[in-house]
Design goal:
Structural class: alpha+beta
Strand content: 35-45%
Largest sheet: 10 strands, antiparallel
Number of strands: 18
Shape: elongated
Radius of gyration: 39 Å
Order of helices and strands: HEEEEEHEEEEEEEEEEEEEH
Oligomer: single chain
Distance between the termini: 132 Å
């Protein structure tokens, strides 16, 4: 092998070696852009946010603040401000555990078509947060905030945004009924119910709310509550047994039901006498 041929072979080997070295260098440079991180990528105070919206599962919700939070599509909608603050609170100190710098192919992380996109507006800046695929290996969510990087986040916010508009309603507070002394109804029905203990209208201790009817009062609960039930044994071949049930009808009368059939109204005072007589027999 002559000298020039040997030089050509050595030059070819050198070119291949340089190419491999450059490739490894580029690969190492690429590897250095994928690394663990404890970076906080967002720090937000809910009081500073003026606009807040998100798109998830083909649903879009948007809110803006004008002293109080308002729903963009209907400003009369009663917004649950605590719920808004909870959602924004996901990004109060938004930390990551893994960072891919200058990510090129966002589709492999589910970020070219995100599952959820969140928009947060402050007075002087806005943020767009995209939530992508879930990494089963790392058990964390891929996220982008539009800075060219892809992150795996420590706390997955996606489930917080899987909600309906009804979840954003500020419901009226219902008082504890054991503290209510008066209830006013207005509309197609217009009357007032008042609370009275140890009343003289009815002998049932459970009747504590009453409404006016003419010059008298009736218990608010007017259902046919059973007051007493008796089964009578009769010396009669045709009908040896009779079952009598007495139900509350109103404040002054009871409904008598014999063998399952309503038959008449009975003065409530007589029912009271009957109940007291039965109690006396049982107690004695």
């Amino acid at each position: 092998m002559n000298r020039s041929k040997r030089l050509s072979i050595l030059l070819g080997v050198l070119v291949i070696f340089c190419a491999l070295t450059l490739g490894v260098s580029k690969y190492e440079e690429r590897k250095e852009k994928i690394k663990n991180s404890d970076k906080i990528i967002l720090e937000l105070n809910s009081e500073d946010v003026t606009e807040f919206s998100w798109e998830y599962d083909s649903e879009t919700f948007a809110f803006h603040k004008d002293e109080n939070w308002l729903y963009d599509e209907d400003e009369n909608f009663p917004v649950n401000e605590e719920k808004i603050n909870q959602l924004i609170g996901n990004f109060q100190s938004f930390g990551v555990s893994f960072m891919i710098e200058n990510a090129e192919d966002l589709s492999q992380y589910g970020l070219s078509d995100p599952l959820c996109t969140i928009h947060i507006g402050l007075e002087e800046e806005t943020y767009e947060i995209s939530l992508g695929n879930y990494s089963e290996m790392d058990e964390e969510r891929y996220v982008s905030i539009g800075d060219g990087n892809v992150y795996l986040v420590k706390d997955d916010p996606l489930s917080s945004f899987d909600i309906e508009l009804s979840d954003m309603i500020q419901h009226d507070e219902i008082p504890e009924f054991d503290t209510v002394t008066e209830i006013q109804f207005a509309g197609s029905e217009n009357y007032k119910a008042v609370y009275k203990e140890e009343n003289k209208v009815t002998y049932s201790k459970e009747d504590v709310y009453f409404v006016k009817e003419g010059s008298g009062e009736l218990p608010l609960d007017t259902s046919d509550k059973e007051e007493i039930s008796l089964t009578l044994q009769i010396d009669n071949e045709n009908q040896p047994e009779v079952k009598i049930e007495l139900y509350r009808y109103d404040g002054s009368q009871c409904l008598a039901v014999v063998d399952g059939e309503p038959v008449s109204l009975v003065d409530r005072s007589r029912v009271v006498d009957l109940i007291e007589a039965v109690n006396a027999v049982v107690l004695n």
